[in-house]
User: Fold these one by one.
Assistant:
Number 1:
Amino acid sequence: MRKVLHNFSIEYLQVLDENGVCDESLKPPLSDDDVKKMYEAMVFARVFDETLLKLQREGRMYTFASLRGQEASQIGPAYALSADDWLVPSYRESGANLLKGTPPEVLYVYFAGDERGNSIPSPVKHLPVAVPVGTQTLHAVGIAWAAKMRGEKSAVLSFCGDGATSKGDFHEALNFAGVYKTPNVFMVINNGWAISLPRSKQTAAETLAQKAIAYGLRGIQVDGNDVFATYSAVKEALEFAYRGVPSVIECVTYRMSDHTTSDDAKKYRDPEEVELWRKRDPIDRLKKYMYAKGIMNKEYEEKVQQNSEKRISEAVKKAEAIQEQEPIDLFKYVYADMPLRLKEQYEELMS
Amino acid sequence: MAVAKVTTAVTMVQALNLALRQEMEKDPSVMILGEDVGKNGGVFRVTDGLYDIFGEERVISTPLAETAVAGAAIGLAINGMKPVAEIQFEGFMPPAFDQMFSHAAKMRNRSRGRFTVPMVLRAPYGGGVRALEHHSESPEAYFIHTPGLKVVIPSSPQEAKGLLISAIRDPDPVVFLEPKRLYRAFKEEVPEDEYTIPLGKANVVKEGKEITVLAWGAMLKVSLEAANRLKDTISVEVIDLRTLAPVDEEAIVKSVKKTGRAVIVHEAPKNCGFGAELSSIIMEKAFLSLKAPVKRVAGWDTPIPLPKYEDYYYPNVDRIMKELQRTVAF
Ligand SMILES: Cc1ncc(C[n+]2csc(CCOP(=O)(O)OP(=O)(O)O)c2C)c(N)n1
Ligand SMILES: [Mg+2]
């Protein structure tokens, strides 16, 4: 006997097209006020990003991973979260982290090379930046598992890139989530590149969303530059998550900047590809929609920009005025109680 | 080491690049795999241009998967290739460690010599370049502690080229850690022709009579600087260990028997760092020559601080000078 046991299909969701035209039948129930808040968060993320890139060039901070072009892949999902839900980011999710409630000065302090930038203020439920690619997806499973064991109504939204889907960690995370039916939503931000490796060479699979199928999870691909689609997919996935059904959501977007400030993308990618994606800008698209809908005018647009710039420049001032850490701070947080050996080493450093 | 006539002043990055190119030209089984090593030439440009010369069959930018890079390299090596695998930063070696620890290190022994793993696992290593989290570690001890692996850390462009060629030709798996703060720190005259520096042999970089300093990688230069500043008061012998596994016990014991004192310098945390093993070797083999306890100047037993505070962490010239003075005055 020879028979087909399983066929699979992967849904694709786009609500707002490249020209800002909305498919009203698919539009999630968002008030005009919600739409404005999402727009404001996207602009804020972009201004934060531009400011940090500038400060990095001026030598005022260290390596930074720009999120430019990925605003809708961060703000839609983060907007769908309740305060009880967790956010587990990689290193490129500054926009989502800000919306979740981490003040910009904290994020800035991190990129300025100071541990206090990882000290996410309570009660904001998001983990610090995760640099080793893909590792954080497993923490997301553990956090979700604990929420389930403790009977909390709380889900975990984690982020990783297209590159991360090649790591064993990612597959192990999906598998655990499927087996233990944990309240997880795994965002896979397919921005076309993992440093110099294009998505086409990362995996032979046609979509990244379909990786969900092998582990018994839901999988969907969305237009990652469409904030209505990213919001809608996450909102739906959260409802499933609370009932113990984890999902993978692949956001198709684009990394407009170099990988980080240490990278030079000209070495490996065609500038024409970047130009193509400039036309699909997530903020421009939402703006077009808002103008057409009559919930945006020039005055509002300028105000949003100015407010963002003002908030960021205040944050930078605050961050740069922060007192230096004391050398003891290097030793103080290694264990709950400082062992004698560390006390001696601290004294040696100070002698 | 056969000294060739023509030399050029190059950085460590260029010296490594040249070693790879010459070995690939000579031996068609040598291949390179790792993240971004192809068109991009590696994030530090160590493999720059090699993709253009040897093509994507032999210089391969892999998917993002360190376990696969190391594990596939083991298979490639078992079946006749000589893979030089790159891990982008030492901080991402842990997933590769699984394969190196469980299989690369043990295959020869498990199979009673039937299967062998002539591979090299390269990675930029150590701190001092204001890098991100997980980009400044010194994990050599984990590998040294694993029987079956060789561990090499070069201290200059000339050393890097000769040692890497030896590592590629070695019949056993070699973990080759490249101090990233030396990558472009200085140029050195390097023979254009191929040459080898034997693995397992230390190098007495500076002769002295009163105390021996054992160092490797980026700490060699710092140690030499400390020795030079003390030149009018203490006669310091400085040894570059070059290969940490198998370590050149003979050279160490010979030196300490002469000087009667030893200080070991490493960037890695002190606790269970390789300094502990070196200190024990000296205790076991040169105890009666010792005039003072063997001392270590090492990284603190803490995670490496983020860039703003990282200078607090590494052994520096002052700390080394102090330890040398204290040990001689003991
Ligand atoms: C385990 C691990 N290996 C390698 C790196 C170096 N590195 C940093 S980001 C990156 C590419 C990640 O690509 P992707 O997952 O697509 O995320 P993106 O950077 O595009 O957001 C690499 C190779 C790392 N941080 N962690
Ligand atoms: Mg990517």
Number 2:
Amino acid sequence: MLEEVGNMMLLTGRTLVSAVRPPYPYGSEFVGQFLFAMRLCWFPLLVSTIAFGYEAPGLQAANFLVLFGALDRLGGFFVLASIREFAPFVDAIVLAGVAGTAITADLGARKIREELDALEVLGVDPIKNLVVPRFLALMLLTGLFDIYALIFGVFGGILATVVNHAPLGPFFATFFNNAETTDLWGSVVKTTLFGAIIAIVCCYKGMTASGGAEGVGRAVNQAVVIAFLGIFAFNYAFTQTLLATHPDITTIIK
Amino acid sequence: MRDDAHSQRGDVKRTDGKAVSRVSVVDESPPRPGPPEGAADEEYRWHSYAVHPSGRPDAVRFVDTYKSFGRSHVLRGLNMALPEGMVSMILGPSGTGKSVCIKHMVGLLYPDSGDVLVHGRSVPDMPDDELFEMRKKFGLLFQDGALFGSMNLFDNVAFPLRQHTEKGDDEIEEIVMRRLNEVGLGDSRTRMPNELSGGMRKRAGFARALVLEPDILLFDEPDSGLDPVRTALLGELILEIHREMIEEAKRKQREHLPTFCVVTHDIMSARRVADYINVLWKGRIVEAGPAEEMLGSENPFIRQFLSGESQGPLTMD
Ligand SMILES: Nc1ncnc2c1ncn2[C@@H]1O[C@H](COP(=O)(O)OP(=O)(O)OP(=O)(O)O)[C@@H](O)[C@H]1O
Ligand SMILES: [Mg+2]
């Protein structure tokens, strides 16, 4: 297990070096992977963000806030909940579960068929030509999809406000009072790095798959679990750092 | 020129027939090495370790190579050579590490200890850039073909040319179609690998390994999954291509003569095609030498294996 983490760190390092060192043959593969992952993810993400935004922070928090007669604070709550945590998480979970698994399955199948070995013998560096484009594509896509998840998450919150027969004015007022640019860029940076974690874990698991078709299935399973763990651990560290370095965002403004 | 290539084969055989060298070589060989750690001497009793000289420099040489995967010890002090300009065979029971050997030659696997030399240079010690260059010397047919699933047959075979040469589309087309026709797949050029049978994928992999006309060609069981007629034809094709490439290399005064290495279970094709035979078992060479001497070997294991009989030292375990 520790050895695997070490190997993934190593892969991250080699991917970064390989990404910046010329030549850059991975352009078309990057575009292809980006579009491929986008096609796979946009709909599941749409459904899960609205559902999540509506149900978890929306309905549940609304029920809770109604107790205090404070439903007008739902907007403020949404900044904390949605921008900082829910949207990035839903985003990462959908990307790891849908795009990440597809990457692991694809690379794993190629590994099993010895295509990756054949590429290497034919002078094609699998890191530069396969890992780097997936790494960059997933980072960009996860970052962009964060904003997308945010929008639909907030839409879920609006839906919850409306369902509770509350006016939308205070929702937006407290939302924008509390929203700071730090929140937004923090959220986007965080998810971009989530994308990096997903890409590395899923590529690594795919490229080291062994033991036939069964082995590919195993690799996909492990990739999802490790990616989730990695995201949780990283998120904890990131949130702690962000709160410590930007104390202003901890105050909740009425 | 073709006769010249023939006589070259003949040369080898002539040197073999020259004397009762078989016996003398065994006698002159250094003291018998001990068994690998953790193995009983008994297990290696059929390993005579006799190596009959080929009279050629080695294109590839394994020196005391050890390789384990976890608890499975695959190469256990392997000493093996592929002589330059010859068609060598690696024969051995299933699961003895023949494919593992091939992967060591091209730097896809690294030995735990010992060395692998290609034209005298150590592969495990090569920095990445050099390894990259070195691999261009190789053409490799993987055991399962290893075609790229996202490309059709033509693109698969053209891939090495596009990757490593500046050749124009017309020239690439001509080379690729010649190779595809040689293996009988000219009509299937636009088909995808997953639409092909195992044997067809194998033949396409064969064509892909050849297009760059490399110095060293490694074929991992080119004949498995082929029908008997195609197996025989493939054997002839290998010989013919080898002859052509030897001629070509001589004409261009290349530094190294083309070396072929075929891994196979098929004793018949070994008899027809091989100039030199390595018999691998339990991670070491049992005996190696020019084909004629090997086919006349006194070693019961070699005799059993080369005649494919069920009676003898080799059993199911
Ligand atoms: N990458 C690997 N990881 C773990 N074990 C491996 C690996 N590659 C090979 N092995 C093991 O090494 C042993 C030798 O495998 P290899 O494929 O070289 O056999 P082989 O001689 O080519 O057999 P066959 O004639 O059936 O192809 C097998 O026991 C196999 O399980
Ligand atoms: Mg094999």
